[in-house]
Specification:
Layout: H1 2-16, E1 19-20, H2 21-30, H3 36-39, H4 56-73, E2 78-83, H5 89-99, E3 107-112, H6 116-125, E4 132-135, E5 147-154, E6 163-168, E7 171-180, E8 183-189, H7 198-202, E9 212-215, H8 218-229, E10 230-239, E11 241-242, H9 244-247, E12 258-261, E13 264-266, E14 277-279, E15 282-283, H10 284-292, E16 297-303, H11 304-311, H12 313-321, H13 327-334, H14 336-342, E17 344-350
Parallel strand pairs: 2-3, 2-5, 3-4, 5-10, 11-15
Antiparallel strand pairs: 1-7, 6-7, 6-9, 7-8, 10-17, 12-13, 12-14, 16-17
Length: 373
């Protein structure tokens, strides 16, 4: 199957001559019958990578953050939207935690997940909860607009299709996917769209000659949808990446594109197409700016560890004091050598007034360099 799909992709690239990497990436990850995310569940120790969603305490801690947001706005009802919801494991833990204080019945939940296999698993997992709706894409949440609530995601933005750029003596060129005698390769060409270099310029950055990097216009599409759906509330993004100056630093000469398969990191996305995850570090400055251009306010950016320690202190303390104690889960989420520094958190608000969340005690918004450009 893998070789057949790889050859199918090669044939389409040959027919087209070349395609932007973003288009190739969309085929590899979300092709209806051969895409990496659409064919089977991929997370967990038996899958290709482990993430926050596999740590039960993360959902409980996130629920504590959600409660704080809900109380701060004083809303009677609440809407949760999870982007890249997978098999519903994270949503189940959030809703279970909210159920304990009687809030779950006042929540409407929308799970956005491209994989039909994962959506089916989520339906089974969450069958006991009412008010849960399932969508293949964010734009499918078409009858939901003007809601109050929280949009959250864990490792969603890093897997959005991105374009590959390279610096030259004369400016910036794009790296396209083409087909050669040995298989799929990258070759340079002019920018496929004129706005691709705009995020770098906005951050006051230039690419050194030969330096490669990734940019993700799909971020703007997502933020457009969120601005349509969310009238009042918050967006919580958990992912790996950093400010523009870190993500596009000259020290990352080949950019941040990575592949994941069987818990191994690789750098060749052109072999075994559809059998590897393809990701790149999230440019959180770009994401914050995209939100601000649409009326969102950046209220927190920092490491996951400090965010959870400030925003979900009681939940973490209860886990440590539990019988048996759940210290390993706490350590996994907050220790700098584990997820505590690996993952970053961005919190944005819209029409939330001057509310101050518990998590803001650990805020490091200035690290994003939002004043640049």
């Amino acid at each position: 199957m893998t070789e057949t799909f790889t050859e199918t992709v090669r044939a389409e690239v040959r027919r087209r001559g070349r395609v932007p990497f973003a288009e190739f990436m969309a085929w590899a990850l979300t092709h209806p019958t051969h895409g990496y995310y659409t064919t089977k569940l991929r997370t967990g120790r038996e899958g290709d990578f482990v993430t926050n969603a596999q740590v039960p305490l993360f959902g409980e801690a996130l629920a504590a953050v959600v409660r704080d947001m809900w109380d701060a706005l004083g809303s009677a009802r609440w809407t949760l939207i999870e982007l890249g919801a997978g098999d519903g494991a994270l949503a189940e833990r959030v809703l279970t935690a909210l159920e304990k204080d009687g809030r779950a019945r006042r929540v409407t939940t929308h799970l956005v997940e491209a994989s039909p296999v994962a959506r089916a698993a989520a339906r089974r997992r969450l069958s006991r909860f009412g008010g849960v709706q399932y969508h293949a894409a964010l734009e499918d949440v078409e009858h939901t607009a003007g809601v109050e609530g929280c949009v959250y995601s864990n490792e969603f933005f890093d897997a959005l299709p991105f374009h590959r750029l390279r610096g030259t003596a004369d400016g910036i060129e794009e790296l396209y996917v083409t087909d050669g005698p040995e298989g799929l390769v990258e070759r340079p060409g002019p920018l496929s769209r004129p706005d691709l270099a705009a995020p770098l310029a906005a951050a006051g950055l230039t690419l050194a000659e030969g330096q490669e990097t990734e940019v993700c216009p799909a971020m703007d599409v997502v933020m457009d949808e969120l601005a349509r759906v969310l009238a009042r509330g918050f967006v919580v993004t958990v992912d790996y990446g950093g400010p523009s100056a870190e993500v596009h630093n000259a020290a990352r000469a080949r950019g941040t594109r990575r592949t994941f398969s069987r818990h191994r990191v690789g750098d060749d996305p052109f072999r075994d197409v559809g059998e590897k995850d393809i990701t790149a570090h999230v440019d959180f400055t770009r994401l914050a700016r995209a939100g601000e251009a649409r009326g969102f306010r950046t209220i927190f950016y920092g490491d996951e560890g400090p965010f959870l320690l400030a925003g979900a202190e009681a939940a973490l303390k209860a886990a440590i004091e539990a019988v048996p104690p759940r210290g390993r889960e706490v350590q996994q989420l907050v220790h700098p050598a584990a997820f505590g520094e690996k993952f970053k958190v961005l919190v944005q608000s819209v029409n939330a007034g001057g509310v101050v969340l518990n998590a803001e005690r650990a805020a490091r918004v200035q690290r994003l360099g939002l004043s640049a450009g």
